[in-house]
Amino acid sequence: MKTTQILKNIPQIKFTDSNQFFLLAGPCAIESEEQAFKIARKIIELTDKYEIPFIFKGSYRKANRSRLDSFSGIGDQKALEILKKISNELKVPTVTDIHSAKEAEMAAQYVDVLQIPAFLCRQTDILVAAAKTGKVVNIKKGQFLAPESMKFASTKVSESGNDNIMITDRGTMFGYQDMIIDYRGIPEMQKNEYPVILDITHSLQQPNQTSGVTGGKPELIETVAKAGIAVGVDGLFLETHYNPAEAKSDGANMLHLDYLDELLGKLTKLRSAINSL
């Protein structure tokens, strides 16, 4: 497994030899500089406490929205500059989504990891463009794809000259309005020899609600995270906010920032136990 090697290619990441899972976490979307820094500082405090390698996550734009009046962002340039400022001032790597091939080069000037959204994981031009930036590329598995199909997405990136790849499972559609996690998919995707991440908040979404606003089951975050660690996932992805009810995107499935300390404490103990087996 190339996890440690790939992590060490990410600028400013810490604790790569701690034998813990790594964490991609932050708000769903960058709402303001104050919001982003408040969340980033708290997560850094906790990941330093538990010696967890950490990458701050924030979307500079939300391109996939159910309704035209849904929040999509504060402006690409403004949000990307906030991500860069967080990286520079707090000494932490950052990750954000891109939504088209032309965005890859632009976003790569501001962040350390480029994330390919699940619905776009088969889009060859986006994967190739992300690969050519030289950044680490995190590919989210489509809700419609079998785990073994992700070898084709990762191969597009590696054959474009970039072997710094991560794969994220964010659940599989179960009917029209629910998601499930097939934990058999984690070892299956690890066969590609890239780190596999479990997205523990998006996997609990309830999409396609009649209101046009995605629902979720955040009360199950700890349950699915523990199961992921037990199965041997390399990293975890979660979205968190100090006031999920007022978050402008995906608040229904976010973890309240106040609960993160207890969750990470439990998960690091579980990881240590798994490592001892």
Question: What does this protein look like?
Answer:
With 277 residues, this protein is of the alpha/beta class. It has one domain (3-275): TIM Barrel (Alpha-Beta Barrel), CATH 3.20.20. It is 35% helix and 17% strand. It has nine helices and 13 strands. It has helices at 3-7, 33-50, 76-90, 101-108, 124-132, 150-158, 185-190, 221-231, 260-275, and strands spanning 22-26, 54-57, 94-97, 113-116, 136-140, 165-169, 172-173, 179-180, 196-199, 205-206, 215-216, 235-241, 255-256. The strands form three sheets. The chain has an eight-stranded parallel beta barrel, surrounded by six helices. Strand 1 (22-26), helix 2 (33-50) and strand 2 (54-57) form a beta-alpha-beta unit. Helix 2 (33-50) runs parallel beside helix 9, helix 4 packs parallel to helix 5 and helix 5 packs across helix 6 (150-158). It is globular, with a radius of gyration of 17 Å. The two termini are 18 Å apart. The model has no long low-confidence stretch (mean pLDDT 93).
